[in-house]
Amino acid sequence: MDRIEAMAVFVAAVDEGSLSAAGRRLQMPLPSVSRKLADLEAHLGVRLMNRTTRQMTLTDAGRDYLIASSEILDRVAEAELSALGGNTSPRGELVITAPLIFGRYHVLPIVTELLQQFDDVNVRLVLSDTNVNLIEEKIDVAVRIGELPDSGLTARRVGELTRVVCASPAYLQKHGEPQTPSDLRNHDCVTFAGLPSSLAWSFLGSKGTVRVPVRSRLTVNSADAAVTAAMNGLGITRVLCYQAASQFAQKSLVRLLREYEPAPSPVNLLYARQGRLPAKTSCFLALAADRLTQVLAEN
User: What was the pLDDT predicted at 72?
Assistant: First the structure.
């Protein structure tokens, strides 16, 4: 069995989402694709994919093997290019995900700088406040804000951000300004869908962290919407400091309860690593770590 060819078939099947599509991409008959994957699983002694007539999903072993296979194939391609007299400068598509507002303000400028430096790199930037699965969505690097679960991925910390509570001057004039976290029980709040923090917000008290129940008048699924709703006087919201920085500067929102703000949340660059990273990933990580460390030090 040609292991490199088998890896290429496996990666193509995952990328394309089906064995027939992988066969078309590799110009290989479907029975050959199926046989090579079966031979690979038999050689490894594990199932890499669960296949039905409708879909194909990776097993836990398949996710790990996909990372390793992709990196090995990238390294083989770089070695072949070098042997042919080419160079191993960054090349290929780099897929990056980041939170919506943070990505727009702070990651997009880094991507722009990367593309200006390297003509052979293309970037797909996925901006979302929902954490996507790096392996299943074929993401090279994720910018994550908050504590990270144990995942087997590699994290590089670049700074931290504080969660802040805020409201519009008009809302505060009508309803009064909360002086302590417990006062929030008497206020309308704008919260986020699907998060535990929709029911209670954490603050730093004299005896450590305290959770205060809040009354959600409006639930949204993005920080943009929460900030806009708060500006329109619909209630008090809690966001990361950068998400309302321009509104604080323009005085369209007022920062509240500063002395009770919880410990800052870490900001990390998250990526899968087994062996040497592709040049495109290494270059972005180095550039992003430098730029984001500077930006976050100013917040």
Answer: 80
Q: Could you give the domains of the chain? A: 3-83 (1.10.10.10), 92-160+265-297 (3.40.190.10), 163-260 (3.40.190.10)
Q: Let me know the angle formed at the C-alpha of 142 by 22 and 50, rounded to the nearest 5 degrees.
A: 35
Q: What is the pTM of this model?
A: 0.64
CA 94 vs CA 29, 103, 141, 147, 257: distances in Å? 29, 15, 8, 25, 41
Tokens 């870490």 identify what position? 266
Query: Which candidate, 180, 166, 173, places its Cα nearest to that of 230?
Result: 166
The 10s digit of each residue's pLDDT in 62-78 is 888 887 887 787 777 66
Q: Residue 50: pLDDT band by 50, 70, 90 thresholds?
A: confident
Strand-pair partners of 238: 165
Backbone dihedral angles phi then psi of residue 71, each to the nearest 5 degrees = -65, -40
Q: What percent of the chain has pLDDT over 70?
A: 92
| Each residue's pLDDT tens digit, 4-47 | 888 888 888 888 888 888 888 888 888 888 888 888 888 889 99
